[in-house]
Amino acid sequence: MKPLVVLLLLFCSCQLSAQDTEPGENSKLINQLPPITETEEMSSKWNLDFEVTFVSRFIWRGLRLGEYTSIQPSFTLSRANFFTGIWASHALALTVPANSTPNDYKEIVPYVGYSFKVAPKSSLTLLALGHYNPNVGGFFNYTREGEAIPLTNRVELRTLFNAGKFDFVGAADVINDPSGNVSIYLEFGYTITMPREVKLRPVVSLTPSDNFYTIDGKADVTQIGVITSKAFSFTDKLSLAAKVDMIYNPDRDDFYSAFGLTAKF
Q1: What is the CA radius of gyration of the chain?
Q2: N or C: which end of the chain has fewer CB within 10 A?
Q3: Residue 75 pairs with which residues in a beta bridge?
């Protein structure tokens, strides 16, 4: 019950706010997608954003996916409110689990989505993503038939909502969920601007039903923590962002920390 009490306290403190934050800004901390602006909504031109991120360890939704540095490139092709692209993660060293085979975590995620404003300082983004494991193969193959078809290839539907400084992520694995169910993931965040334009984002996430995130596969809180970030702009075509994740997973009773650096071209 203690994690649930902490969850309620943090969630109640994240009241909706509309103070000097562009819609979509908080969602960039979640999936690096560019914010929607009036100019972009009215534009008929295609835009291409390219990013490269280095993380000291890969922490995802309260789970640790590898102990070593990973490189995570991505590109997003967008036009008006529509966008599509590919994101990937590749460990730069082998992870050696106890009593298990060493592995280098890899993942490739093609995605397509649509973003739009629902209020002057609120936005909604709808995405469909395919999670692919290059270590196994079978790109774009999500059936369960045949021994060579990995259950790690799955399709996820995701919703991102921003209202001022408040952000919400809702996700569901609808094809090839590793648990055999439809794992639902809910995340609540709130961005606080500190001196020197440092951003603090308290975050809480949970799974409300049977899933593959928790140890026993049952509903639980998966992370409580803070993400700190700082952006640096060098030119109109080059920017750098640094972030530090400090995450506690109540389900696994474990604490994770990681440093990340993202270059955007």
Answers
A1: 18
A2: N
A3: 50, 86
| Side-chain-side CA neighbours of residue 249 (13 Å) | 19
Whether 185 contacts 178, CB under 8 Å: no
User: How far apart (Å, rounded) are the C-alpha atoms in residues 62 and 225?
Assistant: 9
Residue 62: closest CA among 191, 243, 219, 255: 255
The answer to whether 176 and 30 are in contact (CB under 8 A) is no
Please state the three-class secondary structure of 156-195 as a single string.
EEEEEEEEECEEEEEEEEEECCCCCCCCEEEEEEECEECH
Q: In this predicted model, what pLDDT tens digit does every residue of 218-262 receive, in sequence order?
A: 999 999 999 999 999 888 788 999 999 999 999 999 999 999 999
Q: Are 95 and 106 in contact (CB under 8 A)?
A: no
> Could you tell me the pTM of the whole model?
0.81
